[in-house]
Automatic annotation (TrEMBL):
Pfam families: B_lectin, PAN_2, S_locus_glycop. This is Uncharacterized protein. Residues 1-28 form the signal peptide. Residues 297-393 form the Apple domain. Residues 29-152 form the Bulb-type lectin domain. CDD domains: B_lectin, PAN_AP_plant. It comes from the Eukaryota. The chain crosses the membrane at residues 419-441. PROSITE patterns: BULB_LECTIN, PAN. Keywords: Disulfide bond, Glycoprotein, Membrane, Signal, Transmembrane, Transmembrane helix. InterPro entries: Bulb-type_lectin_dom, Bulb-type_lectin_dom_sf, Pan_app, S_locus_glycoprot_dom. SMART domains: B_lectin, PAN_AP.
Amino acid sequence: MVRSISLLACKTCIFILLLCFYLPFSFARDNITLNHSISDGETIISIGQIFELGFFTPGNGSNNDPRRYVGIWYKSDPKTIVWVANRDSPLNKKNGVCGIGEDGNLAIFDEHKNSVWKANVSVPPKGMVKLLDSGNLQILSNSLSVIWESFKHPTDTFLPGMKMDGNLVLKSWESNDNPAEGEFKFQLEGNQYTIRRERLIIYWQSRVSGDFMSDDILPMVSSLLSNSDRSNKTYKFGHNETTISSFSKKYRRLVMYFNGKVQYLTRLSESAPWDLTWKEPMNRCDEFKACGNSERCSNSENSNGVAKILNFKPLKVNKVGKPDEKFQVSSENDCKEECLKDCYCQAYSNETSQVRGVTSVTRNTTCWIWSNDLNNIQFEDTNGGREIHLRVQPNFSPEPKQTKQDGGPNNINNQFKQWPLAFAVTVASVLALAFAVFYIFTRKAKVKKQEAGKRVDRLRRAK
Ligand SMILES: *[C@@H]1O[C@H](CO)[C@@H](O)[C@H](O)[C@H]1NC(C)=O
Ligand SMILES: *[C@@H]1O[C@H](CO)[C@@H](O)[C@H](O)[C@H]1NC(C)=O
Ligand SMILES: *[C@@H]1O[C@H](CO)[C@@H](O)[C@H](O)[C@H]1NC(C)=O
Ligand SMILES: *[C@@H]1O[C@H](CO)[C@@H](O)[C@H](O)[C@H]1NC(C)=O
Ligand SMILES: *[C@@H]1O[C@H](CO)[C@@H](O)[C@H](O)[C@H]1NC(C)=O
Ligand SMILES: *[C@@H]1O[C@H](CO)[C@@H](O)[C@H](O)[C@H]1NC(C)=O
Ligand SMILES: *[C@@H]1O[C@H](CO)[C@@H](O)[C@H](O)[C@H]1NC(C)=O
Ligand SMILES: *[C@@H]1O[C@H](CO)[C@@H](O)[C@H](O)[C@H]1NC(C)=O
């Protein structure tokens, strides 16, 4: 009797235990339906336990931070947010609801049932919203066809399965802990990947052409972006040759970061940390911060690699090459500022016109920016023509270059001080030779670069 009771108790115990383990799996929904929304604190989880959708507060989770967003993250890595629904309109209390509203829209509601975000498509009565193992949130019709998907409306993260076509844009967060739309956009334009900052200024552009295979974009990345992962090519990854398919979809993503860098991250397993495999722009001179306001960056100028170019010289020209950018600004000064902010801006031009409204006159200023080539400028000192403002260096004096920054002979000698002298001398001379070759090559590259500068010089002389 006692034995059978204890057996029963034990069985119950095991049953409860099993239930406890089983519960989170059997009851983790992967869908939102008309009758089932999620409140703050609840989540839905993709069927393979890979992605999770719910409410979150970005950043280090200070208790005083009231902002609540709905987003998708890796279940194994809740800190890595791959998608944010209401990026520009956080809730400020933990009482939001994400569900299908009376108008049939998938939406996020505050405590007063006002929607702060909606997907703008109507979910049919028997349709549903489903989170897939790819990280894609889909709205499905009655017949289970896809009528909306987050993969077509990404935030800053590109996941395997998305396709970078002309319509897809990754928009950076505003900062590390603010998912609002930031300054940088990554997209495909023609057959080049570009990063654009704020308005229309090109910040980085891949030299990709044809089928996206070139030096400055990792083949794995272009294959990911063009969703052609099924190709059986082997790629060099670190020291190893590997195929794309050897990297599970769970372990790769590409992010347009708030600092202007697009980064490709991989990890070897679900618990492994993310490794930075590739990023652009890589060159410090291409960095946004390296040539911020009023500075023009150069790899070789002075110690910190930044040379100030604040001056503009107005010129009348009657024919100029096509500008690289054209946009509306509120004053000539804004146009100038935009030029100063762009590392590659060589000249700007503004045209201010007055627009007469019924009661007032507004000024309308159009700003043109030349970033690449001033090749086609023609001068005429006669009247007419357009005024452009050419960026000029105050004291332009090309100095011969001395030693290189890193890897120069001095560093190496210091490092290898304790080695036997003869060996060190051998190493040093081999390195010196290598260095000389390297130097000659970089000189050659530099001469090419300087041609653009000389053009600017010629223009000044012409004036
Ligand atoms: C939604 O998820 C629950 C729990 O996984 C499942 O029982 C239900 O069938 C799903 N609904 C639909 C419409 O697939
Ligand atoms: C949703 O709720 C309505 C009304 O309560 C009910 O008629 C309908 O059957 C429910 N649908 C599902 C899928 O449970
Ligand atoms: C979070 O905390 C770490 C370490 O204290 C800090 O380096 C990081 O900048 C913080 N992140 C944010 C978004 O505040
Ligand atoms: C829905 O439409 C509104 C108004 O046009 C727009 O502001 C919002 O961005 C749209 N939402 C999505 C997810 O596209
Ligand atoms: C990929 O390469 C492997 C090994 O070379 C080969 O066995 C396999 O058939 C290839 N798959 C495709 C789809 O070409
Ligand atoms: C490269 O190969 C080595 C040895 O074969 C292995 O230990 C290492 O994990 C590999 N690295 C990657 C990134 O696959
Ligand atoms: C450019 O802006 C300045 C200052 O607002 C103005 O005087 C000038 O006329 C503008 N240039 C053109 C071509 O409109
Ligand atoms: C300003 O001028 C541009 C070009 O002339 C025009 O396209 C634009 O519509 C104007 N903007 C306003 C607000 O009038």
